[in-house]
Amino acid sequence: MGNQEMGASPDEVLIEARGLIRRYGPTVAVNNLDLTLRKGEIVGLLGPNGAGKSTTMKMLTGNLAPSAGEVKIKGVSLREQPKLAKSHIGYLPEQPPVYPELTVDEYLRFCASLHRMAGKDIAAALASAKRDCGLGDVGSRLVGNLSKGYQQRVGIAQAIIHRPPVVILDEPTVGLDPIQIREIRSLIAELGKTHTVILSSHILPEIQAVCDRVMIIARGLVVYNEPVANTHNQSSVVCGFRRPPEAVQLAGIDGVDGASVLGDGRFLVSTRKNADPREAIAAAAAERNWGLIELHAQQRTLEEIFVELTSGDLRAAA
Amino acid sequence: MSNVFNIARVEWRRIFLSPLAWAVLAIVQFIVGFVFINLLLQYANDAAQGSDLGVSDVVAGSLYGFSTILLLLIMPLMTMRLFAEERKTGAITLLFSAPVSLTEIVLGKFLGVLGFIVVVMVLMALMPLSLAWSTNMDWGRVAAGLLGLFLLMTSFGAVGLFVSSCTREPTIAAVGSFGLLLVIWLANILAYNDSVPFHQVFSYLSLIDHFESLRRGVFATADVAYYLLFSALFLWLTVLRLDVERN
């Protein structure tokens, strides 16, 4: 539909998820998650353990069917045309999905053939994936005999060997040594030039170093979704109300760019450039009887944002 | 279709890269060879007393009849890893996120196991072949016995594949498929119990009763169809089981 018109533009939407919900019995792991990714973006998915990062990634890659909602990859519905949609994705799950009894070359050739690459293209794809992931001299070794770090690289090579437009990496730097972490980071940055990348991590500096945009997930909800540049010296306002209004009402106030719900009647209000909406918020609260109980500006780092958004969440859950 | 063969090729290769396959083949060959020689000695002895059994009866009948029990023991070991181990190590994600349908995954794995079965069949066929230069064999009879073994193993493989898709512990998959196979095998016990309603049906459902006629050299389409339908049923159940897993 609309996606075809956008096909040629650099802003092409590669992943679009709408209203994703995933329940495990009574537990809701992911609750009404929306996600849009454009070409050439590197998005970092942050969140405390059990926030729903891996579940989200599994749904985006078709490993898990969402209880509700829809995923479109390059405009192709993952539910209606799973084979076509999956052919646009490369996925590295938490544990690299490797066969320990095969050699690196055999394994990667198999991965390439699963993606229906023609025999003559496979050799070139194999060589370039190995070069990108620093696997040049272990091609004939058994995957099972490699160290954890090298197995991780094999996992990444597997995700990019067919050069998919979308690469999804679940904690790609776990188990790597510091030098390897740097190499993988520069690899991801390199990938980001031509591919769209989603990666999840616990390591905040890593996200800050590599990603264009940060999404923080807590209790299955997206609680933060901003370009990384905004987190540098970004000033924002936190306010709390006894009788909280809708977030839209807050967003309508002068100088306010947007408001996100923190729970317990608290909001994180992002401000327009060089604007300080605190006075306007106070006035609006008094006028509409919201019961203002908290109002302060803050300059925050990504870590502070993360801690605030997720620990507040834990308090609410407790 | 090319995906099915790709998966089958890698699965077959992985089966033969593991020492398990070679150990199983060696032990099967040793035991079956031992029984074969024993049967031959017995036959030679009986022949001296003027028995009217042919040598093909001994090989295709007694030897292959005995082999079924051995195969019942080893097939669960060969199929236990197919899905259970991959699920345990997380390698199954590779196939689930690739542009491959569940049916292709299941058929690919099954074809890989068929590759192993073919190797077992070659071993089984070698023993009557070794007699070919010294006596006249009833090849039709031997072929019927081999076909019966092949179909029986195919059914074992399909059941094993299904049980393996239900668990993440290979050992549980092995015990489970052995148990399930034995129950279907023994369904014919009920057939001899007159107090059970419709008791003839159980004889028809039993895995081993359909092998009996093939073993005796009688080729009946109904028996072949039974094994093919039986395998297809469990392959279909495997696809359903994997689909449930995603939901």
UniProtKB/TrEMBL annotation, chain B:
Pfam family name, one: ABC2_membrane_2
Transmembrane segments: 20-43, 63-84, 105-127, 139-164, 171-192, 224-242
UniProt keywords, alphabetically: Membrane, Transmembrane, Transmembrane helix
Keyword set includes Membrane: yes
UniProt keyword annotation of Transmembrane helix present: yes
GO cellular component assignments: plasma membrane
GO molecular function, a single term: ABC-type transporter activity
Protein name: ABC transporter permease subunit
Organism: Solimonas terrae
